[in-house]
Amino acid sequence: MKIIVCISKAPDTTSKIAFKDNNSQFDEAGVQFIVNPYDEWYALVRALELKEANGGNVTVLNVGGAENDAIIRKALAIGADDAVRIDAQTADALYVAKQIAGYVKANGADMILLGKETIDYNGSQVGGMVAALLDVPYVSLASKLTMSGTTATIEREIEGGVEIIETSLPFVLSAAKGMAEARIPNMRGIMAARTKPLNVVPAFEATNSTEIKSFLLPAAKTGCKYVDADNVEELVNLLRNEAKAI
Amino acid sequence: MSVLIYTDSNSGTLTKNAFEAANYGALIAKKEGITATAIVVGNTNDIASLGNYGIANALHCNDASLSNFDPQKIAQVIIQAAKKINATTIVLAHDYSGKAVAPILAAKLDAGLVSGAIALPEGNTVKKAVFSGKAFANVEVKTPIKIISVLPNSVDKAITNGNCAVENFSCEITSTRLTVKEVKKASNELSLTEADIVVSAGRGLKGPENWGMIEELAKELGAATACSRPVADIGWRPHHEHVGQTGLAIRPNLYFAIGISGAIQHLAGVNGSKVIVVINTDPEAPFFKAADYGIVGDAFQVVPKLIEAVKKIKA
Fold first, then answer.
1. Are residues B211 and B97 in the same domain?
2. 8 Å CB contact of B107 and A226
3. Cα distance from A203 to chain B (closest Cα, Å)?
4. What is the CATH number of the domain that holds A13?
5. B293 and B147 share a domain?
6. Could B100 and A227 be called an inter-chain contact, meaning their C-beta atoms sit closer than 8 Å?
7. ipTM score of the complex?
8. Are B217 and B199 in contact (CB under 8 A)?
């Protein structure tokens, strides 16, 4: 079975977010980049578990420039067999989805896994777009995935509960918490990652449909109003009469 | 030119997020001087109530094949409805359903999608939260059709008292390879993303056996319960309660953080809350910087008193 795991580069979760050039660009100074946690912890690790159980091949796929190679090597260190980087500067989700779909159309895949969203642009868009471009089922926000032959049984989150669904290969799945447990690469994995293939392929022709014009930071809170621990009724009064929240 | 809103239903009634999306779409239509139409799929009883959110017309596609949630099929219906009314803006809620449907629509229509919008568009530019709530971005849509999914609890409702005419809408639906085997609805639990008030607790509670008072406070307030990531990771609380950067992002009107220090990742998931109350023994807890109201004190003493005070005011 040929599994493709799409990975995105994202700022570490502890990053302080700042902007430059008149708030038009994300300021990368001092920011450490990681594999987007949902892609790594859930999609990649589940793909590796399926491969370990049933055989097959796990390819990590990234759209971006050479600066992304470090995080791609991390995914290889965790256990992916090989990597592909589509050499393109990401413009927006639809642009990225067209790159991934272009690659899959040319090279084939039984299963495409990715995280439910990236922690930078929080779009939740690429997975569904890839599925639509390939005309295959899209299972979003999946928390469990088991395979029996070519049939997948998947648990996904829906409004007010979960749903168990069945689909057949190929499909696209976005992974959420519960899918797998994060793995930390070991020394052997890190050494092996250095020599695993990382193939760079040219970008497919596409244009972006959206563009970020500017960023802004949320207004700071004006200050916390403290209430004495012995005067809890005062808090309830404030919440009712001042904040009008209860 | 017109606005089409996909309004999702759950167990036969429209969801709170659906009404918010309807309201958002109606406000865009009003601003641009065009019409807003809702599209509803599957068995839904309260479509006419969309009139109270500025929607005068709804299309209802109650095809038997739509009884289970299948984003590919719903996208087919929306695309046909968009064609019928010549929609130039399509609005959905950025919830479980919208996250599945919106990207399919965007790819099929080759249209720009802004997901998680928190304000009405200014021309073709839409404001959304990015970096998991740590910042906002103004995103311009460059395609003739724009698709916007609205973050729950982020745009105020303008309630009107109008009528909504419901028209049966039949469309071509091709089958997919997806079969729903079982639906497990959470038992009467208030959905975290829809709750107006959320009571959340962290490691400061010392163990899962101490959550009784959190649940009681939530019950008295009509609130949903949530937790920090460490608490979900060590199994004190179920994963679906985890709010924060890698859990759920929520924006309730009122958020109680009890025994949660306020790590940057946790704050990212909750800082869209309108009012934040922090209860923590540590006066240096970073959460106080993001709080509107704070009590420096022991949760085990403060929370029972809080329950009594809430009971009193609600009585």
1. no
2. no
3. 18
4. 3.40.50.620
5. no
6. no
7. 0.94
8. yes
Residue B189 lies in a domain: no
CATH number of the CATH domain containing B210: 3.40.50.1220
Contact A121 B130 (CB under 8 A): yes
Minimal Cβ distance to B292: which of A143, A177, A224: A224
For residue A167, the chain B residues in CB contact (below 8 A) are: 177-179
B21: containing domain = 2-168
Phi/psi at A153 (5° precision):
-110, 125
Q: Would you call B103 and A165 a contact, using CB atoms and an 8 Å cutoff?
A: no
Written in H, E and C, the secondary structure of chain A is CEEEEECCEEECCCCCCCEECCCCEECCCCCCEEECHHHHHHHHHHHHHHHHHHCCEEEEEEEECHHHHHHHHHHHHHCCCEEEEEECCCCCHHHHHHHHHHHHHHHCCCEEEEECCCCCCCCCCHHHHHHHHHCCCEEEEEEEEEEECCEEEEEEEECCEEEEEEEECCEEEEECCCCCCCCCCCHHHHHHHHHCCEEEEECCCCCCCEEEEEEECCCCCCCCEECCCCCHHHHHHHHHHHCCCC
Number of domains chain A is built from: 1
The answer as to whether A231 is a domain residue is no
d(CA A80, CA A185) in angstroms, rounded, equals: 11
- CB distance B294–A238 less than 8 Å? no
pLDDT at B186: 67
Chain A contact present for B135, CB below 8 A = yes
pLDDT band of residue A108 (cuts 50, 70, 90) is: very high
Residues B215 and B146 in one domain: no
Measured between CB atoms, does B311 come within 8 Å of chain A? no
Burial A134-172 (b: 16+ CB within 10 A, else e): bebbbbbbbbbbebeeeebebbbbbbbbbbebebebbbb
Mean pLDDT, to the nearest integer, of B257-262? 97
Task: Output phi, psi for A30, to 5 deg.
Answer: 75, 5
pLDDT at B245 over 80: yes
B246/A contact by beta carbon, under 8 A: yes
Q: Do B71 and A138 touch (CB under 8 A)?
A: yes
Is residue B181 a part of any domain in this protein? no
A84 pairs with which residues across the strands? A61, A199
Q: pLDDT tens digits for A147-170?
A: 999 999 999 987 767 899 999 999
Q: How far is residue B134's CA from residue B264's CA, in Å, rounded to a whole number?
A: 9
